[in-house]
Amino acid sequence: MEDLILVTGGAGFIGSNFVLQSIASEPARILNLDKLTYAGNLNNLRAVEAHPRYRFAQGDIVDRDFLRDLLGREQPRAIVHFAAESHVDRSIHGPDDFVRTNVNGTFSLLEEARAYWSALPELDRASFRFLHVSTDEVYGSLGPSDPAFSEITPYAPNSPYSASKAASDHLVRAYHHTYGLPVLTTNCSNNYGPHQFPEKLIPLIILNACAGKPLPVYGDGKNVRDWLYVEDHCRAIRTVLSNGRAGETYNIGGRSEKKNLEIIGAICGLLDELRPNDPAVPHSKLITFVKDRPGHDRRYAMDTRKIERELNWRPLETFESGIHKTVRWYLEHEDWVRDVTSGSYRQWMAKNYATER
Ligand code: NAD
Ligand code: DAU
């Protein structure tokens, strides 16, 4: 086996941050397998594209022949599986791709990983790992005073997106229980930071606010998410990959619960300071309440004591430091923004924010 990590979905938001951090911090080589959907962007990886320890392979995780050939040829010691359709609103408009990639794609990857792993020499078999990156949304929605989700909270997914992720988590679990495949599952809360596609709340608000466009708030704006800076998530995944116990799941979160209106208020406050000459100042006057997301989960919160206790992981960023870095990143990367907001992005915005959804 090679000192090679196969990363799926490494051209997306979290995957690209993971690739950049891994290349900078460890000796392993990284092979990035990505289909390059609307969410995959090789500009995210410009800093490493010529690095001797980085390579890119375009492909689809549903394609078993492709996966078999790749695994046989490359001999990775681990697979870190990010590839997914990830946006809840898109899953409401069109769930097909979510079942295809998140369920069938994870199944294909598990089947080919199992065949590859079964044929490895004994020592390599023992050290191989399949790390599945999942979400807190599989646990459903919390009331205002419910305790945070723990690793033993029963699954109760509410959207086509979270249901497809829950299905993939169950398959991963079953491959450990039935076949002994050495899997690890991480369930993380909402990420934010550089490279996030501006269909998600934080980058959407930053870009709309700068352009003087409405800041769309679903429902009453009091839905709560637990926010984690993306680099802290990537460090957590690397920690679980190195030291996690095979077969276990680990919850990851920022201990940073915030209502959507608090997030939007924080971004507007930062932009008032950094961009006093924007078309609309104060930026908060652009806040516009719009029709709620169907089935909108009210609150997510993560109990992260297991990963803190067993693996000594903790976030390094506070929400205040992370959101400051994030706003600055979007302001300083106009070319990246221009590239991702052309073409199909405009069609998505028109469709999702039409008066009748
Ligand atoms: P993203 O949408 O930004 O990126 C997904 C990547 O997967 C893209 O590069 C895309 O091209 C690739 N991809 C999609 N379908 C593919 C296929 N069939 N074959 C190969 N590649 C394919 O997603 P993200 O926000 O970076 O999320 C990454 C993972 O982390 C997902 O599994 C998601 O469920 C999970 N997650 C995300 C968050 C969050 O806040 N964004 C939080 C917890 C967990
Ligand atoms: O919790 C982890 C999940 O976080 C990940 O698994 C998903 O991949 C990721 O997309 C994210 O899901 P959310 O639905 O929580 O993220 P999003 O940024 O789409 O929305 C955050 C909150 O903001 C949510 O309550 C909906 C609200 N919202 C979102 C958008 C896009 C708005 O009020 N207006 C908007 O325009």
Descriptors:
357 residues, 44% helix, 3-stranded mixed beta sheet, 13 helices, 7-stranded parallel beta sheet, binds 2'deoxy-thymidine-5'-diphospho-alpha-D-glucose, alpha/beta
Description of the structure:
Helices cover 44% and strands 16% of the residues. The chain is an alpha/beta fold. The N and C termini lie far apart (50 Å). The chain has a domain of 232 residues: 3-Layer(aba) Sandwich (Rossmann fold). Helix 2 runs parallel beside helix 4 and helix 4 runs parallel beside helix 6. The chain is built from 13 helices and twelve strands. It has a seven-stranded parallel beta sheet, with helices on both faces. The structure holds nicotinamide-adenine-dinucleotide (NAD) and 2'deoxy-thymidine-5'-diphospho-alpha-D-glucose. Nicotinamide-adenine-dinucleotide (NAD) binds next to helix 1, helix 4, strand 5 and strand 7.
